[in-house]
Amino acid sequence: MSAEGEQYGSSEEEDMYSDDGQEMEEDEQGEAPAAQAQPVLGPKEWVGLASMPAATQQALLNALGKLRGRNVNEMTVIFIGKQGVGKSSTVNTLLNERVAPSSPFQPENVRPLLAGRMAAGFTLNVLDTPGLLEGDSVSARGLMALRAALNGRKVDAFVFTDRLDTWRVDNADRAIFTALAENFGAELWERTILGFSHAQTTPTDGKPYEQFVAARVEQYRAAVRSTLGMKNLALPYVLIENGSRCKTNGDGEKVVNDKPWVTDMVSTMVDVASVGEGYEYDHSKAGKKLDPNNKHKIWILPLFLIQVFVLRPLLIGQIKRDVKKAESKAKGKK
């Protein structure tokens, strides 16, 4: 794997996003400008492909060739999800190059990162985005970074990444599902693949591995569908294992449950990309929703006024009446 790291460095006048290896800058208010950045650099040759196992190389070229057969020469995929679930590591493994910082001792990127790679006349654009959780709340900065990545770009597939070995979908997860739909439209979820990292895990309840995976996938699908009220969402899934101890087959390919997972993931991306014209972000849909934690703040002032001018006088009046009643009782006893 190449040691070349790509950091997105651009001037303050540029958008938060620019092409190939450059992070996005924010404006002074911390928001992503609406205009599209001009490309600074084009995609690079996919050098990491040449050092993959021959079987993987051929399988990837065959998968991408399905799009070329439809006169499509480019595919764009964005990885989204919480922090620490393996988005950056998956980008590195997919390209077989170290383009995103993925060490647990390195801080997470605060801006989206793009790596565009060309091979056999086809361009694969892969974007890594910051985590969407800040404490127990949805990260407004993470949403703004994603908006910057989407501006002026057609996206063929999203990979919503979470861990296979975390057996829960909590309220924070559901808040992320909702925030993505509110800010970027439900269409985003129609082009989303569920990516489960840390897939080389042993089920703790003694279930066969296939049953364990099926239960986790259905749990996640049900949570997304019920949260969004979209019971017909397809939500295909892929299993991901970026660890150095990932098993390999006789051809040297990384496998999960005896299946080469990198080629399986790309094939699933191609299947999603082959449906329709891709997702294009509509800036007008975002409005003021980009701070998901602001949606109830409109009630703060009315509630304060009710407390001051209604509840407080009532409470003070009741206290005075209680005091007078107590004093009357005391006088009666005398």
Automatic annotation (TrEMBL):
Pfam families: AIG1 (PF04548). GO terms for molecular function: GTP binding. Keywords: GTP-binding, Membrane, Nucleotide-binding, Transmembrane, Transmembrane helix. Residues 1-35 are annotated as: Disordered. It comes from the Eukaryota. Residues 11-30 have a biased composition (Acidic residues). Residues 72-290 form the AIG1-type G domain. The chain crosses the membrane at residues 298-315. InterPro entries: G_AIG1, GIMA/IAN/Toc, P-loop_NTPase. This is AIG1-type G domain-containing protein. It comes from Ostreococcus mediterraneus.
